[in-house]
Specification:
The complex is a heterodimer of chains A (273) and B (257).
Chain A (H helix, E strand, L loop, with lengths): L10 H6 L2 H26 L3 H9 L2 H34 L5 H7 L2 H4 L2 H12 L13 H26 L2 H9 L4 H30 L2 H4 L12 H10 L3 H29 L5
Helix pairs in contact in A: 2-13, 3-13, 4-8, 4-10, 4-12, 7-8, 8-10, 9-10, 10-13, 12-13
Chain B lengths: L1 H24 L3 H9 L2 H34 L5 H13 L2 H12 L6 H6 L8 H11 L2 H14 L2 H8 L4 H30 L2 H7 L9 H10 L3 H29 L1
Helix pairs in contact in B: 1-13, 2-13, 3-7, 3-8, 3-10, 3-12, 5-7, 5-11, 7-11, 8-10, 9-10, 10-13, 12-13
The chains are: A mainly alpha (273), B mainly alpha (257).
């Protein structure tokens, strides 16, 4: 990452400005994020630890959480490979329309998730013009999650690949390494932290995905119901404790992923300074 | 070969599905499309979506700049916590966001009852939808501005302060011009997220057609009502907004370098 030296602390000025920015920041974050998160946590524990455990181990909740974690893991692994290939093609290859393709990579970020779900349903649903109908199956959930997590690995790997010194690769090749060996021994180790951090971000996103899945998955309990849809259903049927408990599981998983990405960044840049 | 795989994957996952929806939306002619998106419900949904974005985006822009300044320029207890909390909306399920807001601002929530008794309804009304949208689109300006602030350092700000500028003058004349591309980029991303939010708004809005239905909720409602043509048409409106976002982003990136 950036190796720009951190500005040295200058205590004299520090006291004067910035009190405002700190006040606004903590106030805003509290009202918008922290207080609602605290309310969620307290609500999930309202009936005691036993009630929390009962809510989380409800068979339908367990099935939804299991499905979500397993599919998310599979999806991000596929996109780790596909994303690396796409980033490679965008950086090393040249063809007409490349900049257009490059801009399109961000489409899943920009397109509303409900629209993403609808578009996949149009092509891979009951009225598919190509005769592929995966609607209301786990394959449909996989498709939706592949769609929404596509940009993560591409966008983390691309800048690293752009900055990668080609001299090393050329040296390896002139020493007789095959192109696969060069990739495995030279390129891949350099890309690995970026691939991992993109994959982790995609995983966090997958765990909580709702909009793109809700139309195409059919939401059948025990079969195609992901965690977010389960929570939504519990809210609708007024089982707030159950919804809050499973929400807390997702919240903890997101936090764990975020913290490990932070750790990963520090590890990847450990030689920079 | 790799190019073929990469482009094939993108075509199957992105390009063909989106293209097909555009085709389907116009299948019955442009008249049918216009009719679909000019029903009172659709127009109200579009208007509501824009109103929410017009409130949420400026708020998150101002907050984003303050927050980035606090993260980069100050050392304070809880620094790491603020840094992580800012990223949380990126990783959290929108449904969980909605539920958390209901637990604070809903009738049974911490303050919701009191607020309703005083004539201020948050959940199932505009303020709740704005709150949900602010929550999910909160990180973008911060995340775009933080690296820019790190890179420019604070020598120029120091110089300006030494020459007698007030902190406010320094901010307007030195800091803001230096980070403007980062801010703009963040604003574009925030807007895209705000226009497209579905899950969190779905939980807090109550989804009353013609009252608390945004464009994304309208898409779902039309689909569930088997009015697929209407759903496709509304989707195309949202897709056009998304493509416009991509365009602005690409232009900004070019301008910046």
């Amino acid at each position: 990452m950036s190796s720009v030296a951190q500005p040295v602390a200058r205590p004299l000025r520090r006291r004067r400005d910035g009190a405002l920015s700190l006040g606004v920041t903590t106030g805003y974050l509290s009202v918008i994020v922290l207080i609602p998160m605290a309310a969620l946590l307290l609500r999930s524990l309202e009936g005691g630890a036993g009630a929390f455990w009962d809510a989380v181990t409800d068979p339908q909740a367990v099935a939804a959480l299991k499905l979500t974690f397993v599919i998310s893991l599979g999806v991000v692994l596929i996109n780790a490979v596909a994303g690396t290939v796409i980033a490679w093609v965008l950086v090393r290859d040249s063809f007409r329309g490349k900049s257009l393709v490059n801009a399109l990579i961000d489409l899943p970020f920009a397109l509303p998730t409900i629209v993403a779900g609808l578009t996949l349903l149009a092509l891979y649903g009951p009225k598919s013009p190509v005769g592929v109908n995966v609607a209301y199956t786990t394959a449909a959930i996989v498709l939706a999650l592949l769609f929404v997590t596509l940009p993560f690995v591409v966008r983390t790997v691309q800048p690293v690949l752009l900055e990668l010194d080609r001299d090393m690769e050329e040296a390896a090749q002139s020493l007789g390494a095959t192109s696969f060996q060069t990739f495995r021994r030279i390129v891949f180790p350099n890309l690995f932290p970026a691939i991992l951090s993109g994959t982790a971000l995609g995983f966090a996103r997958s765990l909580g995905e709702f909009g793109s899945v809700v139309l195409i998955s059919g939401n059948q309990p025990f079969k195609t119901e992901v965690a977010s849809v389960y929570i939504f259903g519990q809210i609708e049927s007024d089982n707030i404790t159950g919804a809050a408990a499973v929400s807390v599981v997702l919240l903890l998983a997101s936090l764990a992923v975020l913290l490990s990405i932070g750790g990963l960044r520090r590890w990847a840049t450990r030689h920079d300074n | 070969m790799l190019r073929l795989i990469a482009l094939g994957y993108l075509a199957a996952l992105l390009i063909v599905p989106v293209g097909l929806v555009v085709y389907r939306a116009f299948e019955d002619g442009i008249g049918a499309f216009i009719e679909s998106i000019t029903t009172p419900e659709a127009l109200h949904a579009l208007w509501l979506t824009i109103v929410i974005a017009l409130i949420a985006v400026p708020m998150n822009t101002v907050f984003g700049i303050f927050c980035a300044l606090a993260i980069v320029r100050r050392k304070f207890p809880g620094h790491g916590l603020v840094n992580s909390v800012v990223d949380l909306p990126l990783a959290l399920s929108p449904v969980v966001v909605g539920l958390a807001l209901v637990l604070v601002y809903g009738r049974q929530g911490w303050w919701g009852g009191w607020l309703i008794d005083n004539g201020f309804q948050v959940i199932f009304a505009l303020p709740g939808m704005v709150l949900a949208t602010i929550f999910v689109s909160l990180p973008f300006v911060v995340r775009e501005v933080v690296p820019v602030l790190r890179e420019i350092g604070d020598e120029q700000e120091e110089a300006s302060a030494t020459l007698g500028a007030s902190p406010w003058q320094t901010f307007w004349r030195v800091t803001l011009p230096a980070i403007r591309w980062g801010v703009l980029y963040g604003v574009v991303l925030t807007t895209a997220r705000a226009l497209g939010e579905f899950g969190a708004v779905s939980v807090v809005s109550g989804r009353i057609a013609g009252r608390t239905e945004t464009m994304t909720l309208h898409v779902e409602e039309r689909y569930q009502a088997f009015e697929i043509q209407d759903a496709y048409a509304a989707s195309v409106v949202l897709a056009v907004l998304a493509v416009a976002t991509l365009l602005v982003m690409t232009l900004l990136r070019r301008e910046e370098t």
